[in-house]
TrEMBL record:
The name this protein goes by in its record: Response regulator
UniProt domain Response regulatory: residue ranges: 4-112
UniProt-listed PANTHER family: RESPONSE REGULATORY DOMAIN-CONTAINING PROTEIN (PTHR44591:SF3), STRESS RESPONSE REGULATOR PROTEIN 1 (PTHR44591)
CDD domains: REC (cd00156)
Keyword Phosphoprotein recorded: yes
Top-level taxon: Bacteria
Pfam families: Response_reg
InterPro entries: Bact_response_regulator (IPR050595), CheY-like_superfamily (IPR011006), Sig_transdc_resp-reg_receiver (IPR001789)
Keywords: Phosphoprotein
Positions where 4-aspartylphosphate occurs in the chain: D53
Length: 112
């Protein structure tokens, strides 16, 4: 897996927390505050793992992941949600999502 991670999160505090954590353990972090920015990054920058907030302001996280897969992105995808698995699980079942994590994210879980 690439040592680059894409964090797609509209909440600035959560985005910064994840960025700081991953950089502290040796990863290079790309980040996006919305779906379109994430797709633009995915078109130009390689990464091995993406953390995707399911509720983004412009394009839903499930649509961002779907478009990334359609564009050939093979990175592992981890969904971040404050509403764990409630209404979108069927929308992401075919996207090869590696994990679904509930926010706020326990950083100890991320170390595993």
């Amino acid at each position: 897996m690439s040592k680059r991670i894409l964090v797609i999160e509209d909440e600035p505090t959560m985005r910064l927390l994840l960025r700081d954590f991953f950089e502290s353990v040796g990863y290079q972090v790309l980040d996006a505050p919305d779906g379109q920015t994430a797709l633009d990054i995915a078109d130009t920058e390689p990464f091995g793992l993406a953390f995707v907030d399911i509720n983004l302001p412009d394009i839903s996280g499930d649509q961002v992941m779907r478009r990334m897969r359609e564009r050939g992105v093979s990175a592992e995808l981890v969904v971040l949600s404050g509403n764990l698995r409630e209404s979108y699980e069927s929308k992401i079942s075919d996207l090869r999502v590696h994990e679904v994590l509930e926010k706020p994210v326990d950083l100890l879980v991320l170390q595993e």
